[in-house]
């Protein structure tokens, strides 16, 4: 088994940047989900900025992202625009440039982080293309957000703590939904592809599942074997001394973003709607029995290690069901106050 593809999503819900190498941090892959699009706060939202998600706004799939050769700028391009086609923002904004910028509170699944406004040029670009008042925010504060327990147990609103193992620091997230990483496999990808009509099977469907790490399992694993992965070891192909530990956390329940037509920015035709096609037999997370599962939420360490396409992946531990903060021995624990 080897890493086949690596993705980072600099702006939550926009198209990914596919890379050949990515650095692990204690908040996921470097640059992942560090930006978010929001609607400005109102009295109805209690002063919180509401994040704009591809789950409900399929137009976000029309925005492509790339990183320039110097790794200093993030280039965003609208695939169907005839004007305002391109926007460039810093990949890592300098603190000085953000000194006088407005800051908003953003809540995602019940845990909050500050977002620093990137200015009117970015806001006007997204407002023009989305047809709604939109602001682009960069994660502020200490650059991280607590992991929401509500994803792992419905109506469980306490934040949770996770760690890869007892030797590594607890992890947090930026503007990701619920975990630092999402892992998928080629065997499951192929099974999902075969559910589509024959004319649609050439589509790069894995981009609709939005993983960070896509593992080529060859003939070693059956589709959805990752449901039972508990821990992985990833051996660097360039540095024999580097070994990355991965803790699998939770069978990832999927949302309506699977039905986005990324080429048109609309809902995809019914016979290609992966949400419904998978719902027939992939409702395998007992905590969310009405939603299909594809992939595993995970975390990895140590921070600073580099994942590369081609790195060898081994399953070192299996589990027979998704863990929760209530499971005995779970790596998901209610967050203790500082």
From TrEMBL:
The name this protein goes by in its record: MOSC domain-containing protein
InterPro entries per UniProt: MoCF_Sase_C (IPR005302), MOCOS_middle (IPR005303)
GO molecular function, one term: catalytic activity
Residue ranges occupied by any MOSC domain in the UniProt entry: 145-316
Pfam families, per the entry: MOSC, MOSC_N
Transmembrane segments: none
Chain segments annotated as coiled-coil in the UniProt record: none
Top-rank taxon: Eukaryota
């Amino acid at each position: 088994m080897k890493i086949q593809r690596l993705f980072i999503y600099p702006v939550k819900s926009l198209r990914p940047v596919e890379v050949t190498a990515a650095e692990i941090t204690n908040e996921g892959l470097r640059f992942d989900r560090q930006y978010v699009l929001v609607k400005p706060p109102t009295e109805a939202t209690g002063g919180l900025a509401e994040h704009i998600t591809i789950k409900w706004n399929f137009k976000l799939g029309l925005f492509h992202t790339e990183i320039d050769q110097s790794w200093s700028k993030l280039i965003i391009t609208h695939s169907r625009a005839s004007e305002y086609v391109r926007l460039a923002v810093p990949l890592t904004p300098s603190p000085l440039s953000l000194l006088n910028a407005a800051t908003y509170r953003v809540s995602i699944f019940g845990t909050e982080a500050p977002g620093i406004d990137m200015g009117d040029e970015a806001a006007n670009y997204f407002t023009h293309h989305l047809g709604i008042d939109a602001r682009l925010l960069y994660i502020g504060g200490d650059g991280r957000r607590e992991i929401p327990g509500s994803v792992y147990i419905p109506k469980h609103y306490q934040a949770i703590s996770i760690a890869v193992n007892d030797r590594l620091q607890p992890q947090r997230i930026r503007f990701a939904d619920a975990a630092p990483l999402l892992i998928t496999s080629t065997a499951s990808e192929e099974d999902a592809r075969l559910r589509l009509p024959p004319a649609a099977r050439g589509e790069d469907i894995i981009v609709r599942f939005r993983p960070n790490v896509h593992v080529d399992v060859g003939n070693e694993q059956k589709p959805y074997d990752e449901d039972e992965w508990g821990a992985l070891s990833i051996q660097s192909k360039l540095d024999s001394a580097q070994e990355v530990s991965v803790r699998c956390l939770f069978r990832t329940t999927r949302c309506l973003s699977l039905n986005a037509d990324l080429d048109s920015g609309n809902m995809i035709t019914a016979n290609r709607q992966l949400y419904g096609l998978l719902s027939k037999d992939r409702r395998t997370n007992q905590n969310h029995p009405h939603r299909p599962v594809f992939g595993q939420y995970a975390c990895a360490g140590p921070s600073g290690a580099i994942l590369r396409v081609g790195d060898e992946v081994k399953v070192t531990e299996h589990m027979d069901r998704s863990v929760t903060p209530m499971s005995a021995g779970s790596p998901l624990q209610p967050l203790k106050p500082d």
